[in-house]
């Protein structure tokens, strides 16, 4: 697991059990958090995952020559999953790309954003492409469970239930992405670091009546396995 990317610090007041990288493992216990996600909605911080911002007029054609899936037709506010391979066709990173007005936002998953950036930078020669590691500038939260769209509307005032998987909606400097991580309805929220603590507390204060509670990586992992979703560095990597 990538533990080089920063996880936000405001979990300590809830006294969670932490795994390496200060990633919350559980807040109460994994069984309770499992059922929170299955029956209502769980809130988790995914900021240990990497985030890149790629700009420049050649960004689509540049990446299209390096990734496994064709992203040439990727439209604004849409997303796509694709893999970065080495010369032996082994997977170096499992990426999710989101097309925005003047950039691509890239979730590098369990691969370090700095490592993915280093690989991509090697291939920039004359192309108009700029690659920025935004892992410290942006925080990544997720809500997972059947009441996810309800809590998004209650807390953020945004309609999200009509978003298809990997589609996104922009709220000022923040982005809501339809992202099922557990076999349930789910949404990722990528927002500026300076806004993260107030948004986190906003969910805890205003989502309780909907059944929202914070959840850790253990419950998320159990549900991921039940849903059969493969995970880089666990189920496959550059050596498999």
CATH 4th-level superfamily of the largest domain: Probable tRNA modification gtpase trme, domain 1
**Overall mean confidence score, pLDDT:** 92
Report the CATH topology name of the largest domain: Gyrase A, domain 2
What quaternary form is this?
A: single chain
Provide a concise account of the structure shown:
This protein is of the alpha+beta class and 240 residues long.
Describe this structure in words.
The protein has 240 residues and is an alpha+beta fold. The protein folds into 2 domains: 10-47 and 136-227, Gyrase A, domain 2, CATH 3.30.1360.120; 50-133, Alpha-Beta Plaits. The chain has helices spanning 30-39, 59-64, 113-121, 148-156, 193-206, 217-227; strands at 17-19, 23-26, 41-45, 50-55, 79-85, 91-99, 104-109, 130-133, 138-144, 168-171, 174-178, 186-192, 212-214. The strands form 3 sheets. Strands 10-11-12-9-3-13 form a 6-stranded mixed sheet, with helices on both faces. A 5-stranded antiparallel sheet has the order 5-6-7-4-8, covered by helices on one side. It starts with 16 loop residues before the first strand and ends in a 13-residue tail after the last helix. The relative contact order is 0.21. The model is unreliable at 1-6 (pLDDT under 50).
Short descriptors:
6 helices; Gyrase A, domain 2; 240 residues; 6-stranded mixed beta sheet
Blueprint (SSEs and pairs):
Blueprint: E1 17-19, E2 23-26, H1 30-39, E3 41-45, E4 50-55, H2 59-64, E5 79-85, E6 91-99, E7 104-109, H3 113-121, E8 130-133, E9 138-144, H4 148-156, E10 168-171, E11 174-178, E12 186-192, H5 193-206, E13 212-214, H6 217-227
Parallel strand pairs: 3-13
Antiparallel strand pairs: 1-2, 3-9, 4-7, 4-8, 5-6, 6-7, 9-12, 10-11, 11-12
